[in-house]
Amino acid sequence: MTTTKLAVPYTAFKQEASVIKEELSAAFDNVLESGRYIMGPELATFEREFGEICQTKFALGVDNGTSALFLVLRSLGLKNTDEVITAPNSFLASASSIALAGARPAFADVGRDGNIDPARLEDAIGPRTKAVMPVHLTGRPARMPEILEIAKRHNLFVLEDAAQAVGASLNGRPVGSWGDAASFSLHPLKNLHALGDGGMIATSSQDLYNDILKARNHGLRDRETSDFWSYNCRLDELQAAFLRVQARYLEEWTQARREKAFRYNELLRPYVEVPEEGQGERCVYQTYVIRAERRDALVQYLRDNGVEALVHYRILIPLQPAARELGYSANDFPEAARQAERIISLPIYSSLTEEQQDYVAELIRSFYA
Ligand SMILES: *Cc1c(COP(=O)(O)O)cnc(C)c1O
């Protein structure tokens, strides 16, 4: 290595926030002066704006992405013999939300694209399957036309886990508008994020909307009347106000992420497998994930040289201790298991510089030299 050491942290929250600091401060002042902290006009407006992003009739703010998944599944009234099929290589919440809603998580292996393989999904469907939860992992849209066709044939509910994919689309149609409902996370690591936790549900179903409206707020149908026991999963006015500021930059920042991803692809293609976009896909790169030989050694080498590389996710959900009683093994998901040993998430954000990208690429080149 001839290059001098350069710090490439995994996130750049402070730099990103500094660009919109005045607008965030103004949003804070507005909410403070309004005296409305919960379920007020900022939330209502953000929900309308988010529905426009997803092209759905309704959007509902909730306290985090896990609640967003859980509340949709809860509305289905699942029994403990019912199964919901999701991707084995996702974040834990894709499966925990199924278990918390009272059903059994089931998994179908992924394809080369890292998303659920429609053929494996079809294999995994049984008499107890009630719903499928494709995940748009890394911000890459899952193969929704085939998944919807299969779900229709088997009469299954489709919940998109779009936590990583706000702004992504397939064949010009945004994620969140394909399934019966979609869940989003607004966690700081996600492309559109609160200054803390937050989540969103998108749907065009009036019945589902009405039910979740109550379920996120103690089962209340009005101020005084509760139809069923439920939780408090509301999204704060303050977060909604901050999110409205962030939403104004979503397109610009998504475009910046995409350009960084394409530039990484050019630089890294000779040494590792890079995330090439498929036909009709608009990926938003919540994570920029390469697949590499000698993964653990490369991650260590990058980190030793100041590049904060991570792995999302090292342990498949069905192989977690929490999933022990489901009885899966790595042999059940050969493709996901193979990818889990090779994946590396590299730093990506709108303020990532070309100098930083070149430095990362030079390290990877020298590692394999
Ligand atoms: C982040 C994430 C969630 C959970 O969202 P939280 O807001 O952290 O609760 C669910 N699914 C996927 C795929 C995620 O990346």
Description:
The chain is an alpha/beta fold and 369 residues long. The chain has two domains: 16-247, Aspartate Aminotransferase, domain 2 (3-Layer(aba) Sandwich), CATH 3.40.640.10; 249-368, Aspartate Aminotransferase, domain 1 (Alpha-Beta Complex), CATH 3.90.1150.10. The protein is 39% helix and 13% strand. Bound molecules: pyridoxal-5'-phosphate (PLP). Pyridoxal-5'-phosphate binds at residues 64-66, 90-91, 93-94, 135, 161, 163-164, 185, 187, 197, 199.
List the strand order in the largest sheet.
1-9-8-5-4-2-3
- Radius of gyration computed on alpha carbons: 21 Å
Taking the sheet with the most strands, its summary is:
7 strands, mixed
CATH classification class of the largest domain = Alpha Beta
**Residue runs with pLDDT of under 50 for 5 or more positions:** none
| Portion in beta strands | 5-15%
Order of helices and strands: HHHEHEHEHEHEEEEEHHEEHHEH
Shape, per Cα inertia axes: globular
Number of helices: 12
The CATH topology of the largest domain corresponds to: Aspartate Aminotransferase, domain 2
Mean pLDDT: 97
Architecture (CATH level 2) name of the largest domain: 3-Layer(aba) Sandwich
The helix fraction, in percent, is 25-40%
Instruction: State the end-to-end CA separation.
Output: 11 Å
Task: Lay out the secondary structure.
Layout: H1 13-19, H2 21-34, H3 41-54, E1 58-62, H4 65-75, E2 83-86, H5 93-100, E3 104-107, H6 118-124, E4 129-133, H7 144-153, E5 157-161, E6 169-170, E7 173-174, E8 181-185, E9 199-203, H8 206-215, H9 237-268, E10 281-282, E11 288-291, H10 295-304, H11 334-340, E12 343-346, H12 354-368
Helix pairs in contact: 2-9, 3-9, 4-5, 9-12
Pyridoxal-5'-phosphate binds at residues 64-66, 90-91, 93-94, 135, 161, 163-164, 185, 187, 197, 199.
